[in-house]
Design brief:
By secondary structure, the protein is α+β, with helices and mostly antiparallel strands. Helix content is 42%, strand content 20%. Strand 8 (171-174) and strand 9 form a beta hairpin. The radius of gyration is 17 Å and the shape is globular. InterPro entries: Transglutaminase-like_Cys_pept (IPR010319).
Length: 205
């Protein structure tokens, strides 16, 4: 087996995130440091890839994590974890998978208007769920990144999902039949989203 030095594996990771990775290692264990460094290396290596490959790389990377409910993981009914918390625990619920994919694609330069976090009902499971939607064009059918069905598919092929509302960094939409939905205001109306962004800013700034 080829032995590659730790520093060489993550040579492109910035000092800021090396420090954050070490802090996560102290909090969650040494493997957490490796996961966060691998995440940052993924971002560096994916910047020049075509968007389809970026979507696949990000989707596959985070889908390696385990699904665990918030109550069992955080002792709360609903908690939206930062990507660092998600990778630190190596586990989370559907919101955590989706949030981590969203922020990673934003760091890769994908415009916010092409992404939406979509709250849906998973009909086969009879429970609420969240996925990430990527719109190539404003009028196109989005591609969904999901931790249940791990294959990238257009929304038109996901009849098992019933959209309820969607949002990104700026806006919040309620779904009206088929399509992109009706704009109902800013995403700051979602308290969990605001709390998440405040914590993320505290960690990374």
């Amino acid at each position: 087996m080829l032995c590659i030095p730790h520093w060489w594996l993550y040579a492109d990771v910035s000092d800021k995130y090396r420090t954050l990775a070490k802090q996560a290692g102290s909090t969650y264990g040494s493997d957490a440091e490796k996961r966060i460094l691998a995440w940052r290396q993924l971002i560096e290596e994916s910047k020049a890839l075509p968007i389809v490959e970026q979507l696949a790389q990000v989707n596959n990377f985070f889908n390696q994590m385990d699904f665990v409910d918030d109550v069992d993981l955080w002792g709360k009914e609903d908690y939206w974890a930062t990507p660092i918390e998600f990778l630190g625990m190596r586990a989370g619920d559907c919101e955590d998978f989706t949030i981590a994919k969203y922020f990673t694609l934003r760091e890769l330069g994908v415009p916010d208007e092409k992404l939406r976090l979509v709250y849906v009902k998973a009909l086969s499971l009879d429970q609420h769920h969240m996925v990430l939607a990527y719109y190539h064009k404003p009028t196109s059918v989005p591609v969904l990144l999901d931790n249940l069905d791990k294959e990238l598919k257009p929304a038109s092929k996901r009849n098992d999902l019933l959209p309820i509302y969607s949002f990104n960094a700026e806006n919040l939409w309620l779904t009206k039949e088929k399509g992109r939905g009706v704009l109902v205001g800013g995403s700051s109306r979602l308290s969990l989203w605001t709390d998440l962004n405040n914590r993320l800013n505290t960690i990374t700034n």
